[in-house]
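Preliminary data (for renewal application), iron/sulfur cluster complex.
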Amino acid sequence: MPVLLKVEGIKKHFKTPGGTLHAVDGVSFELERGKTIGIVGESGCGKSTLGRAVINLIPATGGKVLFKGKDITAFKGKNLHSLRKDMQMIFQDPFSSLNPRMTVSEIIREPIVEHKIKTGNREIEEEINILMETVGLASRLYHAYPHELDGGRRQRIGIARALALNPDFIVCDEPVSALDVSIQSQILNLMQDLQEEKKIAYMFITHDLSVVRHMSDDIAVMYLGVVVEKCSVDKLFQSQLHPYTKALLSSIPSTDLDFKKSRIILKGEITSPINPGDECRFAARCNYATDKCFKETPVLRDIGGYHYVACHYAENLQKGDSA
Ligand code: SF4
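Predicted structure:
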C-alpha cells in the first residue's frame, strides 16, 4: 500500500509564563492507506495535541506533515477547508462535540451541505439515510436530539459525520473511552469494518492498551512529547524494550495471579515539559539511568527489523543486560 501520511519531526510548543512548553517535540511516523497507527501514553504526554497538529487543527511549531505527497503544514483558507474532506477527527466525548440544538439528521447534513458532497434535497436526504444505516443508527432516530441518545449512539453520529466527507484519514482521539465496555466493542468493530470497506487510515489515540492492541498495525509510545518506542503491535506486546514501555505494559490488568509481582511501579518526579534540557526525559523515573542519561537526549533509532527505541542502552536491554 502506498504511504498516505508522512509526519516528519512535527513539533507543537506553547508559550507559558514559566517558559516554553514542549507538548510535542519532533514526532515522525508514516501511515499507509487502510492501516492504523496507535498512539499511546499517559495523560499529558502530548498524544491529543499531536493528533490536532497532524490534521492542522492547530498550527505546528515545526516539522512537516506530507499528506498524499503534499506538505499540508502551511495550508490555510481554501486549501485547509478542502483538506477537511480528506482528514477528519472523531472526538472522545461525543456529547460535547455534537450541537445539542440539532437533530441527528441535521448534524449529519451539515458537512454534506458545507462541502457540497451532494446537492439537491433528495440526494442529501438519501445520503443522510445511507450514512445512518452504515453506522447502525435506526431511521426512527432521524429527528432525535443527542441528549435523547446513549453514548454509543452519540458516537455513531460522530462517526457518520466524519464519514459524510468520505475521508482517507481519521484521527480517533479516545473514541471509546467515555463508553460502557459492552458498547466499546460495538464501536471498535464498526470502525474496523469501515476501515476494511473504505480503506481509511486511522491514527488511534488512546491510553487503553487493550483497545490499541485490538485496533492497530503499528504503535508509537509517547512520553512527555516524544516517541520513545515505535514498532508493529505484535512486536511491542512481545518484546518491548524501552523502560517506560515496559512499565506501561506491566500496568495492563490481568487475571494472572502473579500479575502484581511483575508490575513495574514508576517512582520519581515527572520531568517538566517546560524548557526540557539535554537529557532523557524519562531519566528521573528510570531504573537503568546512568550519568549519560542526564546529559544526552537519546535519539529514536531503528535497532533492527523496524523497531525504533529512544534509549542509549536499547541493545543492552534487548540482550537482557542491565544498562
Ligand atoms: Fe533510561 Fe537512560 Fe534509556 Fe532514558 S536513555 S530510558 S534514562 S536507560
